[in-house]
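Typical record was shown:
=====
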Amino acid sequence: MEWEHHLRFSLRRSPHSIRAYIATAHRLVTFLAQHRGEIIDKAALHTLNLAEMRAYLAERRQSGLANNSASREISAIRAFLTFAGVDPLPALKGPRLKKGVPRPLSPQDAVSLAKEVSEDAAQPWIEARDLALLLLLYGSGLRIGEALSLKGDQFPFGAILRVTGKRSKTRLVPLLEKVRAALEHYVQLCPFPLAAETPFFFGAKGGPLSADVIRRNVRKARYQLGFDNKVTPHALRHSFASHLLGRGADLRSLQELLGHASLSSTQIYTAVDAARLLDVYRAAHPRAEREP
C-alpha cells in the first residue's frame, strides 16, 4: 500500500503510528463511501469538504473519541490528505483543551504514548528501556527523576518498589505485574550489567540515562500522535493520580503514593477529576448546554 510505504520510508513513522494512521485512513474512506454512496478514490478525496470532515469527526466523537484522540485523528487525516495531493486541506480545527488544569491521558493514550516512544528506538534494548520507563511513570506515579535514580542493585523488583523522592524522602509504591514484566524484559536485553553503583536505566553508551532524552522522545511522539503539547513524562504521573482518584482513592492515600509533603499539593487532582466529570455531564445531560 502506497500510504503505508510513505509512512514507513518517507515520514519514518514508528510501527505504532503506522498502524494508527492506516486505521484512520480506512475509517475516513469507509465513512465517505457510506456517506456518498460511491467508491472513494484519490479523485474523490480532492472533493472532500469541511461539512463532510465535521460529520466524520462527529460520528467518531459519538463512538467515544476523547479530545486528545480527536486531535490525533485530525493530524492523521491531514497527513493522509496531503499524501493524496489534496490542496488546500479542509480547515477543520481540533478540539479546544482547557488551560490551567492538567488533563490526564486516558489509559489507552498513556500506553499509546509509551509504545510510540519505544517503537521509534534505534535498538531493541532501548525500545524495551523506553517502554519500561514510561509504563513505570504511569503505573506507579513516579517523577522522571525518581525513576532515573533507581539503582541496579534494587533489581529484581517485587510487588512494591521503594522510591527516593524530593528531600531524600523515601516511599513505597505499587508495581503492577505488567510494569514489572516490562522492566524485566528491559534487563534481559540490556547490554550493560547491573550493579550496586550503576543506574538501573542506562543511556545508549552505558552511562546514566538523561531525562532530557526521554523528554525529547516524548515531544516527538506526542506530535506524531497529535497529542497536546502538555503531554510530557510528568503528564503520566498526573494521569496515574487522576485515574486513582476517579476510582475512589482518598486524598491522604494519594498523597503517600505521590510523595507529596503536604495534602495541599495533592488537592489539585480533585480539580482534575471534577473537570473530567463536568466533561461527562456536558456530553450526556440533555440540558447541559443551557446550564450556566
Notes: The domain at 107-230 is CATH 1.10.443.10 (hpI Integrase; Chain A).
